[in-house]
């Protein structure tokens, strides 16, 4: 059906054959009308019986069109089916009266007239539904229709107003009135509709145009003499019926035409132009013919003026609403409903241009951890649902003055006016805990999805001039976010009161190796263990007063230590094992150092399993013979093991104290436990 709809009308053989058949029928009907001028029986048969054939065909084709279409178009054709039923009923009743009334002169009005009037009403409803317009478009159509109806009144209807009213005169007067109304509505809809004008509706308009002419002629002739079956008006009405049959057939054969839209174009000037021309034309005709402007012209002018004013009000409202919709669409992320990156940059620039009461401005970048695995495991629709839920959670936790935007794929950014670095860090920490504490339930996914995020915080403060320095604000927040990712994710870095002592700066390690350490932690169910151990090692080394180079080396070794136990067995050798078995940690350390391109890490990694009392492996080193970085690493790994095994930090503290002087260096242990008592060590879980 799709391919058929694309075939031009002239290429559809059924339509072409039908058009030829219609011409043949019209020629046959005209010939029989001519022959019936002197043959009353033939004229009656032609004008009353054969006349019904196109009406019945039109009814059948209307049913075909209604079944072939859907939605609003189907509803319109159902109304037209009802209209054609009323038409067939009226013509059948009229034929009955012609054959049963003495002299073949039915009274007026009859039951047939009820069918004709109902047909007009249903036709108007069907046409309006078929071209379905919104309020503004419908008002435009009515303006054009009113203008056309005003001309029709003056030219067609006004001369037919009877001097005295009786039922027959009233019914005779109604037909041209309804015809003018339908034709005017059709023209108005076709000229102002927002949709592509279907070929079926064009044929309908032409058909009813013919009907207007025939009804007007009928009204004029009925004033002079009565209607007879041999009148040539029947040929004109047959032409109208045949055009309507073709319209129904086109609608049935080409249902896709009803839904196509025109390219955007401006026709708002048309109703005003038509109204101006009509009022001017009517006023000019009145002045020429009678020397004064008639009440009809004044009434039409007043109605059109009121309609134009109403239309302008509606048009202004529509433009305002459209502008707001376009603005909202331009600054809003379609998936999550929060603002987009473009709007964030605009607001950031606005805050930078003018200081707000010399207040600081902070930015928080949020990046969901391991979001790609959600898409890979559950599919992008689930990923989209997670992003939407995260956006809602973040938005609920922010103040009314704060701005939340989607910055990229799984990244969000919070713009915090009048917020210093400490307050921004605390807000980011609350957001992190909220996301971590409540897994995201997604329809269709059996278990709620655990979710964490990394945060980078940056703050700009006013300078002496009062302006905010935000040139590097986003870059700073982005660097802090990258550090949070590199140090194990699920953390807040930047501007915080403890950030400089809680974690090490970015380590000189390959990102792929850091990623592998995090993946191993995730697979083992340890949480961000490697990153936490690295942070503890950095903080402990700082408390011991070690130089920065030693602190960095210790933190780097702690960051990748967990990978070594995957490469080779790092546990203590079995009793009686051959010497090569003791070389496992050495081999793992050298391999890890080579992968990291950091030979300085090998001694620390190899000695991480030594004990303070000399009972460790692989070399049985004791006391100060063990590198200080390895002693710190051993203690931090022991704390991670204890925290994983027992829920209470106090009980984990007791576990470490049991190894004082045997497994752990007492001096290092005392410093470490002091940090733990201060709450300066992040939880690895």
UniProtKB/TrEMBL annotation:
Transmembrane segments: 14-37, 49-67, 79-97, 117-135, 142-161, 173-192, 199-220, 264-284, 296-314
GGDEF domain residues: 359-497
Pfam families assigned to the protein according to its UniProt record, in alphabetical order: GGDEF, HD_5
Keywords from the named record: Membrane, Transmembrane, Transmembrane helix
InterPro entries: Diguanylate_Cyclase (IPR050469), GGDEF_dom (IPR000160), Nucleotide_cyclase (IPR029787), Rev_trsase/Diguanyl_cyclase (IPR043128)
Xref: PROSITE patterns: GGDEF (PS50887)
Any Gene Ontology CC annotation: plasma membrane
Listed GO MF terms: diguanylate cyclase activity
Any one of the GO BP annotations: negative regulation of bacterial-type flagellum-dependent cell motility
PANTHER family named among the record's database cross-references: DIGUANYLATE CYCLASE DGCM-RELATED (PTHR45138:SF9), REGULATORY COMPONENTS OF SENSORY TRANSDUCTION SYSTEM (PTHR45138)
Protein name listed in UniProt: GGDEF domain-containing protein
Organism, as annotated: Catellatospora coxensis
């Amino acid at each position: 059906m799709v391919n058929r709809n694309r075939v031009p009308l002239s290429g559809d053989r059924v339509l072409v054959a039908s058009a030829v058949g219609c011409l043949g029928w019209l020629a046959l009907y005209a010939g029989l009308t001519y022959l019936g001028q002197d043959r009353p029986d033939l004229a009656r048969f032609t004008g009353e019986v054969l006349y019904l054939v196109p009406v019945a065909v039109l009814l059948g084709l209307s049913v075909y069109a209604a079944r072939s279409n859907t939605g609003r178009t189907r509803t319109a054709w159902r109304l037209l089916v009802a209209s054609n039923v009323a038409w067939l009923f009226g013509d059948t009743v009229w034929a009955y009266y012609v054959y049963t009334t003495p002299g073949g002169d039915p009274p007026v009005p009859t039951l047939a007239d009820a069918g004709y009037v109902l047909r007009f009403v249903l036709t108007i409803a069907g046409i309006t539904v078929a071209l379905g317009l919104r309020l503004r478009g419908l008002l435009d159509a009515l303006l054009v229709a009113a203008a056309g109806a005003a001309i029709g009144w003056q030219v067609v209807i006004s001369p037919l107003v009877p001097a005295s009213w009786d039922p027959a005169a009233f019914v005779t007067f109604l037909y041209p009135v309804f015809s003018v109304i339908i034709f005017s509505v059709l023209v108005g809809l076709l000229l102002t509709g927002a949709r592509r004008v279907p070929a079926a509706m064009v044929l309908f308009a032409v058909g009813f145009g013919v009907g207007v002419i025939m009804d007007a002629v009928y009204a004029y002739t009925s004033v002079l003499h009565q209607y007879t079956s041999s009148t040539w008006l029947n040929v004109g009405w047959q032409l109208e019926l045949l055009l309507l049959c073709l319209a129904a057939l086109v609608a049935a054969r080409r249902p896709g035409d009803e839904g196509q839209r025109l390219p955007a174009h401006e026709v708002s000037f048309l109703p005003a132009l038509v109204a101006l021309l009509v009022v001017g034309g009517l006023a000019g005709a009145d002045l020429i013919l009678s020397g004064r402007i008639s009440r009809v012209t004044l009434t039409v002018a007043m109605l059109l003026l009121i309609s134009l004013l109403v239309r302008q009000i509606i048009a202004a409202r529509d433009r305002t609403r459209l502008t707001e919709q376009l603005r909202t669409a331009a600054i809003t992320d379609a998936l999550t409903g929060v603002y987009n990156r473009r709007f964030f940059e605009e607001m950031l620039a606005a805050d930078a241009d003018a200081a707000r009461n010399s207040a600081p401005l902070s930015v928080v970048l949020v990046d969901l951890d391991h979001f790609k695995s959600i898409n890979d495991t559950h599919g992008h629709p689930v990923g989209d649902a997670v992003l939407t839920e995260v956006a809602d959670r973040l938005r609920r936790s922010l103040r009314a003055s704060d701005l939340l935007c989607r910055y990229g794929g799984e990244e969000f950014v919070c713009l915090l006016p009048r917020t210093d670095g400490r307050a921004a860090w605390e807000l980011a920490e609350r957001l992190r805990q909220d996301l971590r504490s409540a897994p995201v339930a997604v329809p269709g996914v059996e278990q709620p999805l655990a979710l964490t995020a990394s945060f980078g915080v940056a703050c700009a403060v006013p300078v002496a001039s009062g302006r905010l320095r935000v040139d590097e604000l986003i870059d700073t927040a982005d660097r802090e976010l990258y550090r949070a990712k590199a140090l194990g994710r699920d953390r807040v870095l930047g501007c915080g009161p403890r950030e400089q002592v809680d974690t090490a700066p970015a380590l000189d390690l390959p990102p792929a190796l850091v990623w592998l350490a995090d993946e191993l932690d995730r697979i083992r169910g340890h949480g961000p263990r490697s990153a936490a151990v690295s942070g503890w090692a950095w903080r402990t080394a700082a408390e011991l007063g070690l130089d920065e180079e030693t602190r960095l080396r210790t933190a780097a070794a702690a960051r990748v230590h967990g990978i070594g136990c995957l490469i080779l067995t790092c546990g203590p050798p079995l009793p009686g094992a051959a010497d090569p078995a003791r070389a496992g940690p050495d081999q793992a350390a050298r391999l890890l150092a080579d992968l990291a391109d950091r030979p300085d890490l090998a001694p620390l990694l190899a000695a991480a399993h030594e004990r303070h009392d000399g009972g460790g492996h692989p070399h049985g080193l004791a006391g100060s013979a063990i590198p200080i970085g390895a002693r710190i690493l051993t203690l931090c790994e022991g704390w991670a093991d204890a925290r994983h095994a027992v829920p209470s930090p106090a009980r984990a503290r007791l576990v470490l104290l049991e190894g004082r002087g045997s497994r752990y260096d007492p001096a290092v242990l005392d410093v470490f436990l002091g940090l733990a008592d201060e709450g300066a060590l992040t939880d690895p879980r």
